[in-house]
Amino acid sequence: MAHSRSSVSSFTAMSAWTSPKSTGRSSAYSRSSKHAKKRSKAAGLIFANLGTFNSILVLSALSFVLVFADIFAFQGIDYDATSLNVHGSACRVDASGFIPATCQPHEIATTTTPAWMAIGETLALQWQAERASSPFLVTTCTKTKSNESGHVALVFLAGVDSFPMCQPTTFSGQQEIAGMAMLETTVREEFQHGAYMLTVFADQTDIATKERLIANVHQTLIATNGSVAIDAVGINALQYSVPLGRRYKVSSWTRPVVVDLTAEMDPTASFRRGWNVGRLSKKAIAMTWTYRRQVNNWQELLVFYFTVSAISWALISGDFYLTIQGLRGFLQHKPVMSYALSTSLERRRLVLLHWILVQSVAWVYADALRCFQGGGASLGLWLIVAAFIAGFHMSCFMLTMTCVQRLPSPFQYVATFSPNAMQNTIFPLFLIVWLSRSSANSAAFHAAPIALGLNISGVVRSSGAYANGGLVNSVIQDMAPISLSIVFGSFFTTLAVCQIQRKRQHGTFLLNIAWTKTNGFLDACQMPHWITGLPLEEHNMVKIGNKLYCKPSTQATLGLGFASVVPRRRLLVDARDRAAEKPSNDEMEMTLVSIYATVPTLLSMHRYLPRWLSPNVFGTIKKNSFTRANGHTLDDEPYVHNRGVCVN
User: Fold this and answer.
1) Which of 418, 351, 339 is nearest to 391 (CA)?
2) I need a labelling partner for 101 at 20 to 30 A (CA). Which of 178, 268, 389, 400 fits?
């Protein structure tokens, strides 16, 4: 198409449509009724699109909530003061270890016999039993973590004059002890089948503390055969998953520590229970754990997320612009163009691909959330994750659908479904199901197979040594069956409903799209095969004589925007003469460009790009007739938004 250099391009995007003149009149009442229905339908579509944009914006903003909730990296101390439960009060420790025949059988059975003997020797060494005037009187107690993992540890309390109580009573106040230790299990590279991990606190006159943690702690690994080694790692309960590969591994573990509670043990205050105090250090102490959760290289994921999100917003900027233009026309009681963004998604492959990439980060969110939360997980965080996962599945399904549509078909008929109804079904169901399964996901995570446990009163309990090195399935894997059931259940339901409705209204189950070959614009757009959610019924077109004209709303749904070229001299005409000289939409030549290029074209970005990067022209429309453009790009001139027309 030729344009004078003194012209200004005018970009149009389907705010209204005009068609060739037709004869016949309808009653004023009929016209008013139809007009009201059209406005009502347009309002519904416009506000549905605005709701979609708001949802996308809210999800993007909620990502900051997850970041500030330490979803990628977290470290904390378990200050839970759950009472210790008595396991035994019989063991005695001298310089050689456990004095034979003092420990009760069920205490010895907690570990293998060689390991139990090695534990006694280690306690004697660390507590410096050889300096004591008499053997230590040792009480064994069981302690569990507060994260609902079910992990159990065996705590040793050493007394001098009597066996210490596992939990001193309120009336007894402080209880002096000569030493404390905690036994758990763990896995190391050299102990793939598990080993016992002993953390020992030896009371001394000079005790160093750092951020309330006692520094005088010794950790030892004890094999099932009784061999002993210094533990340089000092962690257990290591579990990890690789939802996005090992580079972004999601790991969690715990580390046994001794906490200095001296500052909190005010003798003048009232306490729910007593506390343990070192005989020499006079410090109130308790054994507990620090929790750690970490996503490897999470900074890369964060940069990736916000970068791809920005690109996604750029890709739907054209849809946003057209929706705002439609809203403006609606509020001004002018003819408006309206369409459902959810319906047009099958023509937005780039948008779907970027949404999939953005929402895939939620795989990491889900795995991180389940680590320490148990049944008390924040419902709000799980709701955010569920919304991301629902969007991921919906986008994957729609992108797969676009691939199916490109497969050759010998038939002129296609099945139809409703993307909007499917979306409105999938999201609520995902929120309900994923939220209801949050506790179960955490429980399954902590109930992973163990490599080695502690035998507590005849029951082998998990104590931090997991099989397979701690590798577990990701949440997305565990939830895949039910998630896919929701997606395909929603799809087949809307598929069946659409076919039944068509059969009742038009007498046929499938949609015949052979007629689209009679419309030059639709034929150039490459109609889908096998299945579609696009509004390609003949009654959605404008019929004039024996021709069917495609509305601007359908053109927008198919992913195309309008651009009209208007000579500059017309823009310079005096306002009083402009109406007389301005050509009608039918007379103007309009240039069609991709919906992705709508906003960049309005901003004249194509004028500063090399020709090979300039948006391609899909075709032109003049007098309601479409002409395909072959490889043409936008001219080096500005474009402005204008009204659209029906096209054949």
Assistant:
1) 351
2) 178
- By CB atoms closer than 10 A (0-12, 13-18, 19+), residue 290 is middle
Taking alpha carbons only, the member of 407, 72, 399 closest to residue 250 is 72
Q: How far is Cα 140 from Cα 162, in angstroms, rounded to an integer?
A: 13
Closest CA to 626 of 537, 525, 513, 479: 525
Q: 456-463 — which CB contacts under 8 Å span 24+ positions?
A: 456/87, 456/110, 456/142, 456/152, 456/154, 457/87, 457/106, 458/106, 458/109, 461/150, 461/151, 461/152, 462/149, 462/150, 462/151, 462/152, 463/151, 463/152, 463/153, 463/184, 463/185, 463/236
**Pairs from 69-72 (Cβ < 8 Å, separation ≥ 24):** 69/378, 69/381, 70/293, 71/295, 71/365, 71/368, 71/369, 71/381, 72/294, 72/295, 72/298, 72/301, 72/302, 72/364, 72/368
Whether the Cβ atoms of residue 244 and residue 364 lie closer than 8 Å to each other: yes
By CB neighbour count within 10 A (0-12 exposed, 13-18 middle, 19+ buried), where does 230 fall? exposed
Mean pLDDT of the 299-325 span = 88
Per the CB < 8 A criterion, the answer to whether 280 and 236 are in contact is no
Cα–chain center distance at 645: 41
- Could you tell me the sign of the dihedral formed by the alpha carbons of 458, 464, 467, 472, in that order? positive
Per-residue pLDDT tens digits for 107-128: 999 999 999 999 999 999 999 9
Rounded Cα–Cα distance for residues 456 and 224 (Å): 16
Rounded CA separation 152/166 (Å): 15
How distant, in Å, are the alpha carbons of 236, 391, 446, 615, 628 from that of 355? Answer: 37, 8, 32, 22, 31
Q: Helical H runs in 507-546?
A: 520-524
Comparing 203 with 125, the larger pLDDT belongs to 125
Please tell me what DSSP assigns to residue 414.
Answer: E
Which H or E element spans position 35?
A: helix 28-68
3-state secondary structure of 64: helix
Structure tokens at 454: 């502690």
Q: What average pLDDT is seen over the chain? A: 83
Q: At what angle do helices 419-436 and 438-446 cross, to 10 degrees?
A: 50
Do 424 and 415 contact (CB within 8 A), yes or no? no
Enclosing H/E stretch for 325: helix 317-331
Of 103, 100, 105, the C-alpha closest to 458 is 105
- Cα separation, 224 vs 380, whole angstroms: 44
As a whole-number percent, the residues of the chain with pLDDT over 90 amount to 45
* E strand or H helix that includes residue 576: helix 575-581
Token pair of 314, please?
Answer: 């750029």
Convert the pLDDT of each residue in 496-546 to its tens digit. 999 999 999 888 999 999 988 888 888 888 899 999 998 888 888 888 888
